[in-house]
Amino acid sequence: MLGQAVRRFTTSAVRSSHYGEGPGKNLPFSVENKWRLLAGMVLFFGSGFAFPFIVVRHQILKK
């Protein structure tokens, strides 16, 4: 009885998903334009990489 309820829930959850089919359709960003994707990734990962250096510079210059 529990197995049937779980099976019914999982199949209805899959059916009610609103994502399109195919690779990249369920991502929160677009992968259609490779240059826009590159710029976004450089900004995202670059900011994470630069943050410790900015913090250290701030601490060194602080009086």
From TrEMBL:
<keyword id="KW-0999">Mitochondrion inner membrane</keyword>
<keyword id="KW-0812">Transmembrane</keyword>
<dbReference type="Pfam" id="PF02935">
    <property type="entry name" value="COX7C"/>
</dbReference>
<keyword id="KW-0472">Membrane</keyword>
<comment type="function">
    <text>Component of the cytochrome c oxidase, the last enzyme in the mitochondrial electron transport chain which drives oxidative phosphorylation. The respiratory chain contains 3 multisubunit complexes succinate dehydrogenase (complex II, CII), ubiquinol-cytochrome c oxidoreductase (cytochrome b-c1 complex, complex III, CIII) and cytochrome c oxidase (complex IV, CIV), that cooperate to transfer electrons derived from NADH and succinate to molecular oxygen, creating an electrochemical gradient over the inner membrane that drives transmembrane transport and the ATP synthase.</text>
</comment>
<keyword id="KW-1133">Transmembrane helix</keyword>
<dbReference type="InterPro" id="IPR036636">
    <property type="entry name" value="COX7C/Cox8_sf"/>
</dbReference>
<keyword id="KW-0496">Mitochondrion</keyword>
<dbReference type="GO" id="GO:0045277">
    <property type="term" value="C:respiratory chain complex IV"/>
</dbReference>
<dbReference type="GO" id="GO:0005743">
    <property type="term" value="C:mitochondrial inner membrane"/>
</dbReference>
<feature type="region of interest" description="Disordered">
    <location>
        <begin position="1"/>
        <end position="23"/>
    </location>
</feature>
<dbReference type="InterPro" id="IPR004202">
    <property type="entry name" value="COX7C/Cox8"/>
</dbReference>
<protein>
    <recommendedName>
        <fullName>Cytochrome c oxidase subunit 7C, mitochondrial</fullName>
    </recommendedName>
</protein>
<comment type="similarity">
    <text>Belongs to the cytochrome c oxidase VIIc family.</text>
</comment>
<feature type="transmembrane region" description="Helical">
    <location>
        <begin position="35"/>
        <end position="56"/>
    </location>
</feature>
<comment type="subunit">
    <text>Component of the cytochrome c oxidase (complex IV, CIV), a multisubunit enzyme composed of 14 subunits. The complex is composed of a catalytic core of 3 subunits, encoded in the mitochondrial DNA, and 11 supernumerary subunits, which are encoded in the nuclear genome.</text>
</comment>
<keyword id="KW-0809">Transit peptide</keyword>
<comment type="pathway">
    <text>Energy metabolism; oxidative phosphorylation.</text>
</comment>
<dbReference type="GO" id="GO:0006123">
    <property type="term" value="P:mitochondrial electron transport, cytochrome c to oxygen"/>
</dbReference>
